[in-house]
From TrEMBL:
Residues 197-306, 309-396 form the Peptidase M1 alanyl aminopeptidase C-terminal domain. Residues 14-72 form the Peptidase M1 membrane alanine aminopeptidase domain. Residues 80-193 form the Peptidase M1 alanyl aminopeptidase Ig-like fold domain. This is Puromycin-sensitive aminopeptidase. It comes from the Eukaryota. The keyword Metal-binding does not apply. Keywords: Aminopeptidase, Hydrolase, Protease. The keyword Protease applies. InterPro entries: PepN_Ig-like_sf, Peptidase_M1_dom, Peptidase_M1_pepN, Peptidase_M1_pepN_C, Peptidase_M1_pepN_C_sf, Peptidase_M1_pepN_Ig-like, Peptidase_M4/M1_CTD_sf. The lineage of its organism: Eukaryota, Viridiplantae, Streptophyta, Embryophyta, Tracheophyta.
Length: 397
């Protein structure tokens, strides 16, 4: 039934479906999971099985939570993507931190003039150690809003940006923070801030919000690639900013991060994306730059990448049903990896071979497959002494 509700809300184009999904997600951001559930319950109570309008879905969310959504319905009726600018300032004497927002929706056919949108901006503040600062109060439109309740620290809050220009002032901020803006991509907008490259490098290394950590890396990568493209066009030598390398390193070494996120965070913007940012696209220069950065990262982060490979392969070998697959595919996979890694780091490769050390404990079919893989490793041309020693000992065990 939930998918039926969404289908009633959205029109039959990919763009509108995507926008509609983002609008529904903004309801949840504004109301929280429990508030969103109350709204859905009321929506189904009122309209189950009916063809309904966006206004009726809006009314259910509003009424179930006694919420003031002001101009939220403009997301359905007003075309275009809001462009939001943020400027920041810190007052050390008053211990206050200000975020000034301005928004504009560009004119589109049939809508030359636009009204300000209702934009939920999820925000956190990081201290100089990269930790989230607890948020106590925020002053807005003449009112002081209490953020923390029940003496429990709150590290993220939702700012409701509804006007063309407005300011939010956080109090009791002990040091100049680095703001983490639009956490979780809380609204489908284009955000421009006064964050410096140093601030972005800091967010890349420390932000607890994975979207903003990724976004900081992408912004920096785009700037870096465009700068290096200019160097290529001017026949200058290419150098990779070490801060960018350190930012990628911090992601690779953070064991708490989701592996899928890591793979996306270390992926550079595509060549087409960079060319779209250029006045005159230069595919040769862009390709040269992207290849250069990838090679430099591989070279300078060799040990970190090998550590990740070792961790992943170690996890695979620790899964009996996968490593000891009856068809021998697990043994072949490890054998191929060992031979590839032996050319790069024999020490790591030799540690991986030790996974074969107990091959005789299994049934005859698996023994034959593991033995064949060990013999294949030992017969490889140019095999390192490290791998040969462990493989021969395993074979003789």
């Amino acid at each position: 039934m939930f998918s039926h509700a969404l289908c009633c809300l959205l029109h039959m184009t990919v763009t509108v479906y995507e926008k509609g999904a983002e609008v529904v997600r903004m309801y949840k951001t504004l109301l929280g999971s429990s508030g969103f559930r109350r709204g859905m319950d009321l929506y189904f109570e009122r309209h189950d099985g009916q063809a309904v309008t966006c206004e009726e879905f809006f009314a259910a969310m509003r009424d179930a939570n006694d919420a003031d959504f002001l101009n939220f319905l403009l997301w359905y009726s007003q075309a275009g993507t809001p462009q939001v600018k943020v400027s920041t300032s810190y007052n050390p004497d008053a211990r206050t931190y200000s975020l000034k927002f301005s928004q504009e929706v560009p004119p589109t056919p049939g809508q030359p003039e636009k009204e300000p949108m209702f934009i939920p901006v999820v925000v956190g503040l990081l201290n100089s150690s990269g930790k989230d600062l607890p948020l106590s109060t925020v002053y807005h439109e003449g009112l002081l809003e209490i953020i923390s309740t029940n003496e429990q620290p709150v590290f993220t809050t939702v700012l409701k940006v509804t006007k063309k220009e407005e300011e939010f002032v956080f109090s009791d901020v002990s040091e100049r923070p680095i703001p983490s803006l639009l956490r979780g991509y809380s609204a489908p907008i284009r955000l421009d801030s006064d964050l410096t490259d140093s601030d972005l490098f800091f967010l890349l290394a420390h932000d607890s919000d994975e979207f903003n950590r990724w976004e900081a890396g992408q912004i920096l990568a785009r700037k870096l690639m465009l700068s290096l493209v200019t160097d290529v066009q001017n026949n200058k030598n290419l150098f990779l900013n070490l801060k960018f390398v350190d930012g990628i390193r911090s992601i690779l070494l953070n064991s708490s991060l989701d592996k899928e996120f890591i793979s996306k965070a270390i992926t550079l913007p595509g060549e087409g994306e960079i060319m779209d940012l250029m006045e005159v696209a230069d595919p040769d220069a862009v390709h040269t730059v992207r290849t250069f950065i990838r090679r430099q990262l591989a070279l300078q982060l060799k040990e970190e990448f090998l550590f990740i490979v070792y961790s992943l392969i170690g996890g695979f070998c620790g899964s009996p049903v996968n490593f000891h697959a009856k068809d021998g595919s697990g043994y072949k996979f490890l054998g191929d990896i060992v031979l590839q890694l032996d050319k790069l780091n024999p020490q790591v490769a030799s540690r991986m071979v030790s996974a074969f050390s107990r091959w005789r404990r299994y049934d005859e079919g698996r023994q034959a497959l593991a033995q064949a893989e060990l013999e294949k490793i030992m017969s490889a041309n140019g095999l390192s002494e490290n791998v040969y020693e462990i493989a021969s000992k395993s074979l003789a065990a």
